[in-house]
Design brief:
With 345 residues, the protein is of the alpha/beta class. The protein has a single domain, classed as TIM Barrel. It has helices spanning 10-21, 53-58, 85-97, 124-127, 134-149, 183-199, 217-223, 243-264, 284-293, 322-330, 337-341; strands at 27-32, 37-38, 41-42, 64-68, 101-105, 161-164, 205-209, 232-238, 268-274, 300-303, 306-308, 311-312, 334-335. α8 runs parallel beside α9 and α9 packs parallel to α10 (322-330). The radius of gyration is 19 Å and the shape is globular.
C-alpha cells in the first residue's frame, strides 16, 4: 500500500486502511460542519457534548465530519463561514477520539485579487513557481501547514485527516476551475501545493481529488494530478436537474470513480451532495439519494452544510423530510459514528 505522501505517519496509513475497509460494511454518512451549527443554533464555545441536527433527528452522529479551511491562509481566527478554527480543532480532537473520520475542504481566497474563491480573476499561473504571487502563496500554504500540524490528540499523537483542496475544478466558478487556468496549470498547482505541505513537515494528510459532476471518465482524467499525488477519488453532485437526473448522475459518476478506483487501487466517495430543494422533497433520502448510492462501493457520502433555512442541504428536527431520514438512517447499509468506530479502530 502506497500513500501519496511517502513520509505519512502511521496514523495516516491506518486511516487509509480504515477508509478502504468501509465499503465492505456499507457507506459512511457524513455532513459538513455538522457539530458547528444547524438550523437555529450555532456552537459558540467548546462544550463536552457534541450537538448536530442529524443526531437530533435520528439519534445517530455522522461518521464523517467535513470542515472548511477558507481564510486559514489569511491568518484569520475563523473561516469564511465565521466558524472558529479553535472550535474546529477542538471538535476534530473529540470526533477523532470517537472514531470519526475528518475531511477538510479549502475555499481559499483569490491570492491575486484578494477576492473570494469565486473571484475568477486569473491567478493560478502567478502562484506557480516563479510567478509574481508565489511568495504570498507560499506564506498561505505555510499557515495551512501550521494548522494541519497542530491537529493532535491530547497525548500529542498526530490526527490524520483527509484534505480535499481545489475541488470542482471542472466547473468554472472557482479561481482554480475550468477556463480560469489550463488543466496543466491546475495539475501543477496541485503538485506544487502537495510538495509545499511536505516541505513544511505535514505528514497527517490523505489527499482527495474531487471534480463536480462529470459527463465522461475523460473529464476525470483531464485535471487528475497523478496517482502519486492522490489517495482518494471523489465527486460532488447536487440535485439541480431534478430527481431522475440526480439519481442518474450519481450512479453514472460513482461508476466512473469505481472503475478508476479499481485500476488505481484507491477508495472513492461522494464527497459532497445535498438537497437543493430541501424543505419541499419529503422523501428525498430514500427516493433520491439512496437509489444513487446503494451498492455503489463508495466509502462515504457527505451532505453539505445546514447553514440557514434558505441554505441547508440535509435535515433538521422540524424538517419535512424527518420521517424519511429516520427510515434512511435505519438502513443496514448506512454507517454512522458507532459503526465506523468499529472499523479497524
Ligand atoms: C458553499 C456555500 C457557501 C460557503 C462555502 C464554504 O457551497 O455553502 O455559503 O461559504 O460552501 O463552506
Amino acid at each position: 500500500m502506497q500513500l501519496a505522501d511517502k513520509n505519512a505517519e502511521l496514523q495516516t496509513k491506518i486511516l487509509f486502511e480504515r477508509i478502504r475497509e468501509i465499503p465492505n460494511k456499507g457507506i459512511a454518512f457524513g455532513q459538513q460542519d455538522a457539530t458547528m451549527y444547524g438550523i437555529n443554533w450555532k456552537m459558540k464555545t467548546a462544550t463536552s457534548k457534541l450537538k448536530s441536527d442529524i443526531k437530533e433527528v435520528s439519534g445517530k452522529m455522522p461518521a464523517i465530519h467535513g470542515f472548511d479551511l477558507g481564510h486559514i491562509e489569511l491568518g484569520a481566527s475563523s473561516n469564511l463561514d465565521t466558524v472558529s478554527f479553535d472550535l474546529i480543532k477542538n471538535h476534530v480532537r473529540k470526533l477523532n477520539k470517537k472514531g470519526a473520520i475528518i475531511t477538510f475542504s479549502w475555499h481559499a481566497d483569490n491570492p491575486k485579487s484578494m477576492g473570494t474563491s469565486w473571484d475568477t480573476t486569473s491567478v493560478v499561473k502567478t502562484i506557480l513557481k516563479g510567478g509574481s504571487e508565489r511568495s504570498k502563496y507560499e506564506s498561505w500554504v505555510a499557515r495551512l501547514s501550521t494548522f494541519f500540524k497542530s491537529l493532535k490528540t491530547s497525548k500529542g499523537t498526530p490526527i490524520p485527516v483527509v484534505f480535499r483542496p481545489f475541488h470542482e475544478m471542472n466547473g468554472n466558478w472557482f479561481w482554480w476551475g475550468e477556463g480560469n487556468c489550463t488543466p496543466e496549470e491546475y495539475k501543477e498547482l496541485w503538485r506544487e501545493t502537495f510538495y509545499l505541505l511536505k516541505q513544511n513537515g505535514v505528514t497527517n494528510l490523505l489527499y482527495a481529488y474531487a471534480p463536480n459532476i462529470m459527463q465522461s471518465s475523460e473529464e476525470f482524467d483531464l485535471y487528475y494530478p497523478g496517482d502519486d499525488f492522490v489517495d482518494i477519488l471523489g465527486v460532488d453532485i447536487y440535485n439541480y436537474g431534478g430527481r431522475e437526473a440526480f439519481i442518474n448522475n450519481i450512479q453514472k459518476n460513482l461508476a466512473i470513480l469505481k472503475e478508476k478506483a479499481i485500476q488505481k487501487n484507491k477508495p472513492f466517495a461522494l464527497t459532497e451532495t445535498g438537497n437543493v430543494n430541501s424543505g419541499s422533497e419529503p422523501n428525498w433520502w430514500t427516493k433520491s439519494l439512496y437509489p444513487g448510492i446503494e451498492n455503489s462501493g463508495a466509502a462515504w457520502v457527505l451532505l453539505w452544510r445546514n447553514a440557514r433555512l434558505d441554505h441547508y442541504f440535509s435535515v433538521y428536527p422540524e424538517d419535512i423530510s424527518v420521517p424519511d431520514f429516520k427510515e434512511f438512517a435505519r438502513l443496514d447499509e448506512l454507517l454512522f459514528l458507532k459503526k465506523i468506530k468499529k472499523i479497524n479502530y
